[in-house]
Structures are given as C-alpha cells and as structure tokens.
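Q: My collaborator sent me two sequences in one message, no labels, and asked for predicted structures for both. Can we handle them in order? The first one she listed is below.
A: Yes, handling them in the order given. First sequence, followed by its structure tokens:
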Amino acid sequence: MDVYLPIANLSVNGLVIVALGALTGVLSGLFGVGGGFLTTPLLIFYGVPPTVAAASASTQVTGASVSGVLAHNRRGGVDYQMGAVTVVGGMLGSGVGAVLFRFFQSIGQIDTVISILYVVMLGAIGTLMAREAWGALRASKNAERPRPAKRRHHPLVAALPGRWRFYRSGLYISPLAPLILGAGVGVLTMLMGVGGGFILVPAMLYILGMSAGVVVGTSLFNILFVTIVTTMMHALTTKAVDLVLAALLLLGSVSGAQIGTQLAQKAKPETLRLVLAGLVLLIALRMLYGLGVKPDEIYTVTPL
C-alpha cells in the first residue's frame, strides 16, 4: 500500500510506517516512554529525510502522550506544579532548538547533526540501561535482594537559590532545577523529534530526587505540551511536519500501546530493560555506521 508523503516528497509503504508507529506504541506501553527516540532513526533508515522524520515524530509523540497522562492522572500520578515548571523550560528550550535547527539547516549540516546527537544519546543511554538491567538480572538469579536506592536530589540542585515546595513529588528545591532540565529536553525535542522521556525520567529520579510514583506521569505531562509547541514551531519555521506521515505513525501507536501494556504485565522488568537496551545500542551502532559510509546519492531534501 503505497502512500505519498507530500512534505518528504516520496512514496512509502503505509503498512511499514504503521508498523513503526506500532513499535513506538509497544515501547510506550512497556516502559512509559514516548518512543520517539527510536521512531526518528527508524524512519531515517527507511529513507525519510532526517528533518522530516524529526519534525513528524514529535507530532506523533504528542498524540501518544495524551492517553498516558489521563491514565496516570486517574491514580494521582502527576505532579502538575513540577510539570508546569518543566513545560515552561521546555517552551524556552524549543525556541532555542528552533534557532539551532534553522542554523544547521542553512549551512546544510542538519542531517549530520541529528545523526550525531542520536549516536551519542542512544549509545550513552543504552549502555547505562544495559548495565542496570544486567545487574538486576544477576541479583535475581543469585536470589540477592537489591539494595534500595536513596532518593535525594543532586548537590548542584541543593545549591540553587529560591526554593519551592513540590508537595506531590515530596521535594523542597529551587524551581530553576526543573526549569533548566525542561529547557534541555525542549532543545533535544526540537532537534531530534523525541519526547524526551528517556532523558527526563532518569533525570527526575536521580537529579531532582522525585518520588518514583509521579515521575512517569509528570514526564508524560511535560512531553505532551512540549511536543505540541515543538510541532507548531516546526510547522511555522522549518515547515518539515508531514501530517500524512504523523497520522500513519499515530494509527500504529494507538494499537501498539495496548499490546505493550499487556506484555508489561507478563514479562520480567529486568528482561524488558535489557532487551530495550540491546535495541537502543543496535540502532546507535547502525547510525554510527551510516555516518561513516558514503551515501548512494549526495543530496538532502530541504522543505520549502
């Protein structure tokens, strides 16, 4: 089933794109992440220009985050005060990211920048995830009880001025910390087309010291609004959002999320994290390989 993508200016198999969206949905249901950090490189491998892949993936992540926020809200798993601060930071970061995106696009290096960012980010995150999952598997195999981690914020966070009380998260910290964190995620969302949950969730846990019960819901709340702003900025500045591509991805992710939720109830969390880490590292290696190989045709597609 061939479908023409007007912004990407190419025909694709619609079923393949829906399948990629379904994979994103499965990951969302399994791990509580948007999945955009895998959708964009997979679209690039399929032949979609990196600029269009990054802009359209952020649109799809917006839709996939809505149901997640509603589900976590029903059980009180969203810190709206913390989420509002990170959203403000994300909006500021999206503006900075838009300027960087246009700059690298103007000098013809945006495709390379996106690929390099993915290699660095996926390589680092995949390695950390693999180490944590392997350690947890070894502990469970040896019938050892994992030592509970102490929940406290980073010393740099404690040094920031002007503290607020975030009651739902159980924190008394400066709002500058989540503001800066949100800004960083906003920049990455604009450049890479990711929701940022794969960075925001561990950062909220280990840097801000948030309660684990509200981390995923608050992260999805941030992702929802930041990707909306990012999509609007892409549509107004880079003009790289392909709504046909985003609709196909969203169609797959809706059904995939249901499958992922069912799988999450049956499989061991340590095994799932190890599988995801392997997939992330495999994609990082594939993108690294692509950076060093001469393409068949040396050109890039720049939306008008």
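Q: And the one she listed second?
A: Here it is, processed independently of the first:
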Amino acid sequence: MDRLPPGFRFRPTDEELITHYLAHKVADAGFRTLVIGEVDLNKYEPWDLPLRAEMGEKEWYFFCVRGRKYPTGLRTNRATRTGYWKATGKDNAVYRGRSLVGMKKTLVFYRGRAPKGEKSNWVMHEYRLEGKCSLHHHHHLAKNEWVVCRVFHKIPASTKKPPVMIKAEAASPLPRPPLPTIHASASRINALDSIDVTCFSTLPAATFDGNLDDDSFAPAEPHRPPPLFALGGDDQQAAAGGSDHILALLGHTIWNDCY
C-alpha cells in the first residue's frame, strides 16, 4: 500500500511481528514495509531512534542485523557511543498455535561502560526466528541474522503523579441559626392565660355510681370555670342551685384526677 489509512495504529502481537514481518525480511532482505523502519541500532542512541522510525507515538519498530562482537564468535555487539544494551531475564518463546516460531529477548539501555553503567528507562524487545524457520535451517543466511525490535521509553513509577488527597481541616462547628422571634400582643397573652384545659378521668363512670354522696370524692374547694355568659340578677340566683349540683357531680369525675 502507498500510504497508511487515517487513524491507523500499529499494535502487532509478538506472533504477528515474527510471522508477518520478520519471516518475510529473513527470506528477502529487500522486503520493505511502511510501518517498520530499518536501522543499525549500534550507531544510534535510544533517544534518537524515534526520529528514525517510520511511525509510532510511544513504541517504535525497526529491522536490524545483529552485529557480531567478534568476527569468529557468536556474541552480539550491543554497544553505542554513550552506552550499551544489556539483556535482562530469560528469553521467552513465541508460538503460533502449538508451533514455536520465535524468541523474545528483553534489553535495557545503560549509559557508560560495563560493568559500571547507569541504568536508563529505555527498553527494547528483540525478536528472532526460532524453530523450523530459524537460521539454523538456512545456513546461507547466517551472515545476515535479521531481527525486529520494539523500542519504548518506560515511565518510572516514582515519577507518576500520585492521586490527590484532600486533607480535611478541623473546622469549627457552624453556628446554629437563631430561632424565629414570636411577636405576641399583651392582650393575646392575657387571653391565653385565662383559658382552662379540661381534664377527664380515665376511670369508668360506674366506679362513682354508688358513692356520689361520699364526701371523700368531693374536692375541698372545687375550681369553678368561668361562666360562658353573664346572667342577670334573678336568673343568676335561679341558676345558682343548678350549677352547684352540676359542679358537685363533676367534682367526682373531673377535678379529682387533675389535682
């Protein structure tokens, strides 16, 4: 294809890098692709590699030939002008289904010279063919051992921004709102003072049927509620006897429980 489609992201798996790209490069050194560049990793520092890549934002891919440290040896030359790539851990096998197709090696870049180099955060994953497609079965390709590499800069955990913690300050309690002021006139207060609340006994009325004339049930001085209306001279005297009889009856049932 002449160019990549809009929004294209190159995020191949380990198996795809080996079977779809590295295998073609090993079989044909002239193989080219728009997503993987070709570079000599010994001539460039890792922070210069993003500018040499065909594409990538956080990861960059390259084809390169593993250089020999010695002409007659098998050790790989991984030194650059300012440092070197050092392998870490063991190689991991890459499978396609149940078939072994390659190996994955992890390397970290160190500034300076071994063994006193300073470790950096630049990491490289190097993929090589293994199994039936490896160079051990193609001796005519042994001088050009192609590999494909994924290079990226790892962000250390210490530089990641910690979550923002908001510490609650010891705040003084909020003042309570003032109670609403009740405005009442003097005449209304005097009217409330003159209201009598009637209290009824909870005892059954049959308790007092045979003891209405007993002086023990009558209060010494029964409280007389104010009259509901004023009576004239003769009417007041006529009603006096009836009101006394009614109050005598109420005194047994009402006022005895209230006082």
